[in-house]
Amino acid sequence: MEFSPKKTDLRVLRTKKLIFNAFVQLVEEKGYEAVTIQDIATEAMINRATFYAHFKDKSALYDEIFLYAMEAFTKVLDPELLENGNRVQLKKLELMITQVFKEIKKNRVFYQILTDGPAANSMKVKINWLLEQHYYEIFSKLKITENDVEVPIDFIIEYMSSIFIGMVHWWLNSDSDFPPEQMAHLLIKLVGNGHLTVLGIEVVK
């Protein structure tokens, strides 16, 4: 995975990429809990002091990589996809989701880590947060009800993120050879004509 910290110092960039790549490799081999700072330093061919010059601890390293990885998902959370507050263009949405799946495929190992075990919950929490940041106001205007009882927005967000993470987990851990384009199309087919309509969103094909 191409890790590009925001700092422009080339030495910092190079060192963080070494640390990042070492961490991902070790987590794949041993699991997150078993990886130590010394393991990371040895794999990255740096000393422990260098590691601590860049990260407070292993959790801080994970958090920075996690936030970088999650940037791919913000591409699909574009409020401009909704026109007049309740209309969505499926073709544009499908193209954006395809780009997300391409990013996931390119960095398959890391996203396997993110969607498996305890890390999956962290990923879902972050996606929920992103959905709330982008769409909370829109969802609140829709006023979705069931038997005259308003459906909580956090329930809707939890449901939507669970569908997406479930699909990604299946794709990464099965023998499926579905390309990103097909996964995006499948997701749109599943939610476009049913879930979005239930949410009160008008679908524009």
Automatic annotation (TrEMBL):
Coiled coil: none annotated. Residues 13-73 form the HTH tetR-type domain. Keywords: DNA-binding. Pfam families: TetR_C_8, TetR_N. SUPFAM superfamilies: Homeodomain-like. The keyword Transmembrane helix does not apply. It comes from the Bacteria. This is TetR family transcriptional regulator. It comes from Carnobacterium divergens DSM 20623.
